[in-house]
């Protein structure tokens, strides 16, 4: 049997792209091994007594031991924001010592939501303070979008500083009561200036489409690399949520990131991380081992737009950071590392589209030919496949891809509260649709690259919808008890 394949030009393109993608997947599987070996997701049992001892230890050492939960929202998803706050309050109820060290702030552009939050949490056992972002607020560098709201809060904190960690939430973010306790316990014992933890996407899981479930299952799989990024900086990417920053450091760095030649920057988290690295070096970064739970996009359109923004934002951030005065202060190795790794991540993500589309298309053609033969002759002739490098590479690539999606799905299902049988059903269904989801998952990144190469430096930005119902309907309010039920099942 021939070992070297006889391929057309398209076949050789697919072969080369597949080799590159396999190397990428091997790298990510190595990240799985590395992160898992360091127990990157804490399942430690924490009690109120344990927390009391940890906080006392931090206080004796003079370390930061207060925690400000900061929720940033544009407005329009009040019930989702309330779910995050309610889970904080559930954590405080389960671990009473947290009443002394935890409080919540919300920054929103919706005045009605400020009033609603003030009324709802007026008698909460911890301070819950909503802030209204003034419509005429401008930063010195004309920062826009989410970073503008973040900079506004930095200004409030500079005026009234506290020795605390700022725990960044997106509007749908949730720490279960036990995970909130784990976060406080971990950082009280092992202080870190800027840290992150894993994010999974099991909230409102059954409100999304099957294809979305398959796409979102790649995210926890890829998030194993986040452990390496935060423990071996410079940070090639950064979460905007589950990001915990000591307030004095955040006040020094700020979120006034400016813009790129007049275009708003949409990856404020990546820009912030690189700015922190330029200012403080690698020792300020770390990993806090605590998992946060968020929602998947509910529609294919929302998922497509989200992925286009990710890639476009990464290219914006790289171009922006290279214009900063401190860029040349980095070593040549660091500059090369940041340049090459970010571009390589973008390239491999965008390459996934032609590979997925051509591979899916070729398989459809083969199935149609077999079906036509069956109809015409009443039999199907299946020739044993030749053992070629192409076949081996394709099989390995498919196995690595499918297995990565299944691992990510395992993490996403942990906090859904589903039965074991329901989880097995989702594993089987996601396995079946993964090849189709791959096309949609990588279409946005390819479009982002093509836009960038065409000289477009701005992309439309709109937060991913957080409500799975029509705006005119009453949104479903998800109580803390429902999330806690999922936590117990996990």
UniProtKB/TrEMBL annotation:
Example of a GO cellular component annotation carried by this entry: cytoplasm
First and last residue of the signal peptide: none
Glycosyltransferase 2-like domain boundaries: 165-367
Superkingdom of source: Bacteria
Name of the protein described by the UniProt record: Glycosyltransferase
MF (Gene Ontology): beta-1,4-mannosyltransferase activity
Transmembrane segments: 12-33, 346-370, 390-413
Keyword Manganese: no
Alphabetized UniProt keyword annotations: Membrane, Transferase, Transmembrane, Transmembrane helix
UniProt keyword Membrane, yes or no: yes
């Amino acid at each position: 049997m021939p070992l070297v394949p006889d391929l057309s030009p398209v076949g050789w393109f697919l072969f080369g792209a597949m080799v590159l993608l396999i190397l990428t997947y091997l790298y990510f599987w190595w990240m799985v091994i590395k992160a898992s070996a360091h127990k990157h997701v804490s399942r430690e049992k924490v009690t109120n007594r344990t927390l009391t001892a940890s906080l006392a230890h931090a206080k004796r050492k003079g370390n930061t031991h207060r925690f400000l939960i900061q929720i940033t929202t544009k407005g329009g998803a009040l019930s989702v924001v309330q779910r995050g706050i309610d889970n904080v309050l559930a954590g405080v109820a389960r671990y009473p010592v947290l009443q002394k060290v935890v409080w919540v702030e919300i920054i929103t552009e919706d005045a009605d939501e400020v009033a609603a939050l003030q009324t709802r949490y007026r008698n909460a056992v911890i301070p819950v303070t909503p802030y209204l972002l003034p419509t005429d607020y401008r930063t010195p560098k004309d920062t826009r979008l989410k970073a503008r709201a973040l900079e506004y809060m930095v200004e409030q904190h500079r005026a009234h500083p506290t020795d605390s960690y700022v725990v960044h939430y997106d509007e749908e973010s949730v720490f279960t009561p036990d995970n909130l306790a784990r976060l406080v316990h971990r950082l009280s014992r092992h202080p870190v200036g800027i840290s992150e933890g894993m994010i999974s996407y099991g909230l409102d899981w059954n409100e999304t489409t099957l294809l979305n479930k398959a796409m979102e299952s790649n995210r926890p799989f890829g998030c194993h690399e986040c452990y390496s990024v935060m423990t071996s900086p410079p940070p090639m990417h950064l979460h905007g949520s589950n990001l915990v920053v000591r307030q004095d450091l955040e006040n020094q760095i700020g979120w006034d990131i400016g813009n790129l030649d007049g275009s708003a920057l949409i990856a404020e988290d990546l820009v912030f991380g690189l700015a922190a690295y330029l200012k403080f070096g690698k020792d300020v970064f770390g990993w806090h081992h605590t998992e946060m739970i968020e929602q998947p996009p509910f529609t294919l359109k929302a998922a497509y737009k989200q992925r286009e923004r990710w890639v476009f934002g990464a290219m914006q951030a790289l171009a922006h950071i290279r214009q900063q005065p401190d860029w040349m202060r980095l070593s040549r190795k660091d500059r090369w590392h940041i340049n090459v790794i970010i571009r390589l991540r973008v390239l491999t993500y965008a390459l996934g589209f032609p590979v997925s589309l051509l591979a899916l298309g070729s398989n459809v053609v083969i199935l149609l030919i077999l079906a036509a033969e069956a109809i015409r002759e009443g039999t199907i002739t299946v020739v044993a496949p030749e053992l070629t490098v192409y076949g081996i590479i394709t099989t390995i690539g498919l196995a690595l891809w499918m297995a990565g999606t299944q691992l990510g799905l395992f993490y996403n299902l942990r906090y859904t509260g589903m039965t074991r049988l329901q989880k097995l059903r989702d594993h089987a269904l996601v396995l079946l649709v993964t090849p189709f989801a791959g096309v949609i998952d990588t279409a946005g990144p390819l479009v982002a690259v093509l836009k960038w190469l065409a000289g477009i430096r701005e992309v439309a930005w709109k937060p991913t919808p957080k409500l799975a119902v029509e705006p005119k309907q009453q949104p479903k309010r998800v109580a803390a008890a429902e999330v806690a039920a999922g936590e117990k099942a996990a």
